Amino acid sequence: MQIACPSDCAWLASAREHPPAVAVRRHQRDIGAYLQVLRDLDDRQSQLLLMISTFLVRYEPPELQAVIDDDVAEAMAALAATFETSARGVIYEHRPASLQAERIVAGLRPLLAEAGKGGGTPFERDAAAVLRRVEAASREVREADPENRRAFLDMLGRLVGSGETAETPADAGPASRLIVP
After folding, report:
1. Which of 17, 38, 145, 147 could disulfide-link to 151, CB 3.0 to 4.6 Å?
2. Are the beta carbons of 148 and 154 closer than 8 angstroms?
3. H or E stretch including 3?
4. Taking a C-beta distance cutoff of 8 angstroms, is the pair 78, 101 a contact?
5. pTM as predicted
6. Where are the alpha helices (DSSP H) in the chain?
7. Tens digit of pLDDT for each residue in 37-58?
């Protein structure tokens, strides 16, 4: 049975304030993994990481074509290789093998181009380093949870979220529901 619950419901507020222990442990693991990615990054690199993370969370693939961690790793590797060769003065676009990874690259490339305007070789080096970090993190998180082909993307979704706030206006849609057994 479901009960329509207003946003100021005491039971709903209590559930938000005191999540189950499993959720708390998962959140702590997620934060630890993301901090590993962030380690030793300067401000510009951290901003790039957040921009890439937000892009991946908000990325909507074509219908019936889910993105998995392997696609993310492949896309990040191709973009990083492109930036690395460009930083050495060679213009060559590395392309990922999968169509989904290519679509991720196509969506992320304009964002990186906008962020790197006037940055030159230092930006290219920073972007390559951050992209390599995301590639490595996607592979590591996926290896830690081999059953979940979207382990890294799910982690980013829990940490970065969709950008929506926790509180929604009363006219934003249906109220939260409390499920009573």
Report:
1. 145
2. yes
3. strand 2-4
4. yes
5. 0.76
6. 10-17, 21-38, 43-58, 69-87, 99-115, 120-144, 151-160
7. 889 999 999 999 999 999 999 9
